[in-house]
Records
---
Amino acid sequence: MGIRDIVEGKKQWWAHVARVKALPPDYRIVYQEMQRYLFKIGPADTSLLADVVDFFEEGAAAGKGVRQLIGDDVAAFCDDLVKGSPTYAEVRRESAGGEPGPTGK
Amino acid sequence: MNFWDTITGGDLTREWTAFEARAAALPADHRAAWEQVKIHLAAHSDLTGRNLPPVVDGVLGLLEETAAEGQGADEVLGEDVEGFCAAVMGGKGARTYRDRWREQLNRNVARKLGGLGG
Amino acid sequence: MDDLTEMLKGTLEGCVLEIIGGEETYGYAITRRLNELGFADVIEGTVYTILLRLERNGLVQVAKRRSEVGPPRKFYALNDAGREELARFWAKWDYVSSRIDKLKEGGR
């Protein structure tokens, strides 16, 4: 990865962080907790995080609260978001050379 | 250091010794399946390892039965041993890290949103 | 009816495909449609995760359109792959529902 990619990546990341900061407090809290959870379970997918912010901005603009939008079970929402993408557990399993389990398309 | 000592602490060793003795009496391919089962079940162990013995006893019993009936180990466990282990542990209400993180996430959200007074 | 979540899990994606197949539409409208149909517990977040998956699997065409309030809104329409997937969904649904009906009627 060249210097330019790193700089470009950082710029994008800080732009993303600024968008998160601009969200209403309830959205910001939920987003930050979600990000912590998503980073724990799987390889970071920044485009997914950007999509979530798009969605949250839309909901906030429509005057909805975050719970109205995604419900109380934030973890279930996260799990649905990453359904189909590999978790760390699956990455480990694949690299161990074992049979990949049924992923269920 | 013995595998079970590592994950359970010494006080459960006697139980595991008994399990291993039963496993040693199994035919070769059942014994190989047992080795796989141990590894995958350990991933679902709680911190003390105390949630494992009842499940292990059940799975070992299943292997013994199928061996006695002349069935292959893969006929009972299927090819996805890891999936099988997750399923039996799930059936026993086992909590994995992922479950803990899930609960933590929802708890944090509930607490912090509550703090907003909304 | 309450507590349909588990049962709906495998079929909601097909329902969303069907709704999009009717006309180009957006997440909130799809949610409302499902709610009016009688699936009152379906929330926007759930529909959103399905739309995201459809998009990533290349089954829909997405267009960002300006809306009266706030940021541009994403509109979804089926592409050819999406229409094929929808046909597969209904074929599977017909199979599963006919088998289950048979079971209920006590046939073999």
---
Amino acid sequence: MASTEIITPLLGGGLIGLAAILLMLLNGRIAGISGILHGALFTRGAGNWRLLFLAGLVASGLIAKLFFDSTPSVPALPLPLIALAGLLVGAGTYFGCGCTSGHGICGIGRLSTRSIAATAVFMTTGVLAAISFHG
Amino acid sequence: MNSFVSFVCGLLFGAGLLISGMTDPSVVIGFLNVSNMASGQWDPSLMFVMAGALGVYLPLYHFVVKKRISDNKAPVYAEQYHLPKAQRIDRPLLLGAAAFGLGWGISGICPGPGIVNLPTGSLTVAWFVACMLGGIYLASRVMRR
């Protein structure tokens, strides 16, 4: 297996974990991207830290684009299907209180049974959808 | 300082997603599409990303943050820890997670990589993020959290 399948994922994952635990230790917040988005959309006033975190995410993407010319290979799917996927991700993370980061990393990291259950469920339906649409 | 930490954590988190390959939907789909296992084309990356992230988060949470909480210490730059209070595995959690997984498996994009990929100028990503925000809005009209 190539290093892009083990070494860089481990290092990148470690950096994700470091960013998430620093946000908890220093600011007392869960680094769940969907929760941060929900809060940024619906919390008046005190939502500043969320906008700054999101700005940091965008800045990382901008740096990658400008200096490393990173281009994601997005699946060639019809736009209505992308729309359906976006709606499912938005509504699903709202009802399910989290996504890959909030449940998969912070939640499992705290050994939350809700997050372990949610992660098992979205991994399962994710596998089913990927096989159905890309298998 | 709290604001600076928020921005820097976002920046580091995004850098982690980029380095790990998770901002590339084809890598995510390559992991979720386990039908590739037989032909040796399966991409295990996401498993190692989770291992790397949990390898840092889990021990530091349990040995540092939890201890601070039980010692009644506040976060370094905030007044209190904000932790989810819900305990019960209920229907909205499971149905929501199921719906999220379907959308994730179709597109290969989850919320973090969607935001990080916005500056690439990909119309597909922008369209996905717009619809994701629409989904959050619609869901909030159905159920207040």
